[in-house]
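Here we describe the complex-level prediction in full. Unlike the single-chain runs in Section 2.1, the two entities below were treated as one system.
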Amino acid sequence: MVTPKLSADGKTLTCRVRGDLTSTRSEACAAQISAIVRNYSRGRWKTLSLDLNSARMIDSAGLNVILGAVNLMEEQGRSVKVLVSSPAVQRALHLTRIDRKVEIVMRTRRPKRAMKS
Amino acid sequence: MTHNGSRQAVLVVDDDEYARSYFCSSLKLMQYKVVTAACIDEARRIVDREGVERFACVLTDFRMPYRAGLLFLSWIRRKDANLATILVTAEGEKDLVTASLREGVIDYLEKPIHHSALEDAVRRAVEHTRAEREREASHRGLREALRSTRLFREVLAPQMQSRLEMRHFPAHEVGGDFCSVSTLSPGRNLVLLGDVSGHDVKAAFISAYFQGMMRGLLECRNAIGEMVGRFNRILCEEWNRVADPSRITIPVSLAVCVCELDFEQEALKILCCGGPGVSLIGRDGGVRVIHTAHPPLGWYADERFEPARIPFEGITDLLLHTDGVEALAAEQKVLKNAVIHRFLSTRESELTEIEQHPPDDLLIMRIKVDTEVATDDQWHPIINEQYSGDEVRDIDKAQNIWRRSLRYAIEAELGDRLYDVLTCIREAMLNAFVHGCGEESDRLCSLQVNYHPGDRTLRIRVDDSGPGHKFDPKKRLKELDGSQGNRLGLSLIQAMSDRCRIENEGTSITFEFKLQ
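The structure predicted for the assembly as a whole is:
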C-alpha cells in the first residue's frame, strides 16, 4: 500500500500511498508510514512527502493519518508535504485547514489529447 | 376412388391397381383412413376438393403415366410444405432420392414393399406432418399474439397521457412484461403492470385475458381484491391443474401491480402480487415503497387479496416497474433507482446498446399525481437504501456501488464533484454505522440521495436509529488546530457541502451539493 523512496539529494523521503486514503485502510497505512519513517530514521532527510496522487478521495480517518504524520514529524523537527491530484482531496485538505500545517502540492491533470484523424 | 371417414387420411397415388389395393388394405390394418387415386390428375382433384389439411401423409409411386411423380410432389409441396410424402420406387431407382428430397419427400420405399417397412414409413410421415403443422400454427399464433401485444402496448387512456412517462424495452416478442392504462369512469383510472411467466402464445393469451377481465370487471365497479382473487383462482384451478399425474406441470404465474387512481377522491388503491412494489415519491424526493406482499397469481388458490388504500396527500409521483429493472441494475452493478432515473431522464436514442436490449424485459412507468409540480421542479430519487450497523465492514463495497450509481444516473451533472459527494456520504454513513447503530446488525440506518434537475442540486439524507448527539460540527471545525480527533467527519461534511442540516438531535443529517 505504501512504498518509500529517498530523493537523490537525500533531503526528501517520499511515501507513495496507492489508492484512496479512507477508514478501511487508514490504520494499515499509518502503520506502514511509521515503519518506513523508523527504517529511515538515521537519514538526514528533512521532509516527509506523502504522495497521494493516486487517491481520488480522503475521508476523516485518512485526514487523521496525515495529521498524525504531521505531529510525528514536528517532534522530529521535520516537515510534511502532501502531493495530490484529486480536487476532492485538495478541497478536503483545504476545508479542514490541514493546508495550513503542511505544504500541498497539487498536480494538475493534463487534459487528454485529441485523437489525430 | 375410395374414401373412408372424415379424419386425416393417407393419400395413396399409384396407377397399379394391385399396388393400390395392397397399400389400402395394409394401411387400413394399421387403422389409417385411406384415400386412393389412380393418377396424379385424380389426386390433384381430390386434394383440391377435400383440402390438403385433410391428409396427414402422401404415398405416391414414382413411375406413373403422363406425368412424373416428382411433378406431383412439387405441386403438393406448394399446397402444404408441412405435408410429409413418401415416394415408392422400383428396384434400382435409389438415385431418385436426392432429387425427391428437394421436393420435401421425407422417405422412400423400394418395391417390393414389406408390410412392416410400410408401417414404419407411414407412422414417421404422419408424425412429421403433425409436428410441422403444430409448429407452423404456433408461429402463426406468435405472429398474431405479437400483433395483439403491440396493440395492447398502445392502449393508454387519453386522460392519462399527460400524466404518464413510460419506458418499455421488451426482450421478447410476446409474453413477459405488459402494461395498460384505462379510464374506468371520469376521474377514475386503472393502471395494470405485469409480468407473465413465459414468452409463448399461452403467456400472451394470459396477459391479454387478465387485462381484459380486470378492465371489464372494474368498469362495473367490482372491487380490486375480489377481481384479482377471481383471476388467481382461474389460473390455479383451470390453467395450472395437473393434467398428467405422471409429469410435473410447470404452473403459469403472473406478477402484477394493480393501481386504481381516483382523482375525484384523491386516493389510491394499490395491490402488488409477486412483483416489485410501487414507489410513492414525496415532494422532498422521499420514497415510500408500497408492497402488499401477495404471491404471484397462479400460486395459491386460497390467497385473499387486499389492496392498500392511500390518500394522495404529499405524493407527487408514482413509480412502477417490473423486475427487469433489478436485472439490469445487477448487471450494471448499480442501484435500481439510478436505473429508473437514467431511463426516465434520457432519450431512448442516447441509451447504450445493452440498455436498449436489456437482459430481461424492462418496463418503467412514472405517473404524475400532483400536476402542479413540474417534473424538472421536483426531487428524483437516485439512491434509496437501508443498511444494518454491521455493514460498516463492507463500506468500501457500498461506496463503490454509490459511485457507480451516481455516475450512471447523473454523470454529466456531477462534474468534478463526484468525490466530494462520495467523501461526505461515506462520512455520514460511517457516523450512522458506528455512532448511530453501534455497528449492531439489528439497528438500521438509511441513505437517500435525490436530484433536483431544475436547481441542479443533489441532496443527501442519512438517518440512523441511534440516541443522537449534541455535537456542533461548525464549532468543531473552528476549533480544529491540526490535532487528531473524533467528529472530524461531520465537520468535513459541513465544510465540503453547500448546505448542511443536522436534525432530530443528530440522528438525521441532510446536505446538498450545487452541481454545474
